[in-house]
Amino acid sequence: MNSFIYQININFKRIILRNKRFFLFDMMLPIIFYLLYSKVLVNGIPQADLKTWQMNYLISMIIYSCLLGSIITVANTLLEDKTSHFDILSRLTPLPRWQYYLSRILIFMLLNLISAIVICLVGILVNHLTLQIANWSLIILISVLGTTPLIFMGILISLANNPATVNLLNNIVVFPLAIISGLWWPITMMPKWLQSIGKLTPTFEISNIDQSILHGKIINSHYILGIILWLMIIVVITLLITKYQKHKELIIE
Amino acid sequence: MMQQNISITRITVKEILKLTQSYYQNPLTYEKIIELADLNDLEDSKMDKLSGGQKRRLSFALAIASNPDLLFLDEPTAGMDSQSRTKFWQTITDLKKQHKTVFVTSHYLEELETIADKIMILQNKSISFDGSIAQLRALEGESMIEFDSKLLPDLFKDMPEIIDFKKVGDHYKFTTKNAELIIGQLTPYLNAINNLKVQQNSLDSLFVNFNKEGATHE
Fold first, then answer.
1. Would you give the distance in Å from CA A35 to the centre of its chain?
2. Segment B119-139, tens digit of pLDDT
3. What pLDDT is stored for residue B136 in this prediction?
4. B8: helix, strand or coil
5. Total beta-carbon pairs less than 8 A apart between chain A and chain B
6. B170 CA to chain A: closest CA distance, Å?
7. Which positions 48-67 of B are in contact with A (Cβ < 8 Å)?
8. Per-domain residue ranges for chain A?
9. Phi and psi (nearest 5°) for A209?
């Protein structure tokens, strides 16, 4: 157990604490977006609706930040572990593979947790948003847990094993996903057909669950089911591809 | 120990060693690893800032962290400076004394000459030689004897066991399979001989010869 804690500790230092890219990218981008759309460019919004908009947009940005962290940081970190031979080093030890991935997944969730908390703090400090501590915690917790399918998506992308492909896939997945699931602009601004696709995305599902908590509505169980389904689908694809890659390696040898 | 260096970003030498220790049940102590791999001054250096030779030493440290009885080293000294190399082979000798089996793949044959109990030559996917260095020498064993002398070549020309006889100016050069015998016969003339040099075939030349033969046999 001690050694597992040590592994987590080192991964924390390596992936979060000493990783400037994380601070710049995963947190700054959503924060800048948030300040821009909830503080600076708010001329046309009536005062009464402003608070709701500021709160709703905060949730979008929490999820957007988790999306960036889960896919871009996860895929790049895991890819880096492969190109630096860290992956093969740990493969040559008795360390079980699940433990290798678990110690990383926990760190990635922690990374999302930190971004989510920081963005909430920005909302509280800049826009004076008020919510009960319990509600804040619940929203943060749901966002972090709900984005686990995205972490596996990042793992899946890292299996491409090639920096150029990984970057391309990151961009293909992250930005369109953010747009069609209504994280950047409200989903109602999109054409109908795009909305119906957007509503199937895991990011839309989590943001919808968060909104329900925020406005005291009943959580739509379809969305919970949807996230679990996404998680299962992506995990299965990841396992299949890993198996296939192993198989191919053996044939080449 | 892999042929490629491991170079993880944002992690220090100390951390990666402790991390690797944490993967094993009964690892070597941290101090012992540092001492064996000669990493004393580098504990707090970032892993990706190490030089090529230092990275090799770190890879070695990672390989011995588990205190293995069987150790595979793939090109362990590539990129090391000569001092580190000497130290490194000294460490391997010590490990051998502790009855550890060490399996080295290397292109630096002169290093293996002093350390290896057994040599295997891998050629075209199959092992074409498997034995001690002495056996390899006996197989290919030629030595070279060189000296300067004003004596007439007739004195030496008809000595037995000389395979190749060359004389350039006053410089003689013999190739033989039995250097001891030739030296015995040279003894009476030692007063008139300068710069005597006997050179056993190095592993390098044995290897070159062996490869040549291997090629012609096929």
1. 20
2. 888 877 888 888 887 787 777
3. 76
4. coil
5. 54
6. 57
7. 48, 62, 66
8. 2-252
9. -60, -45
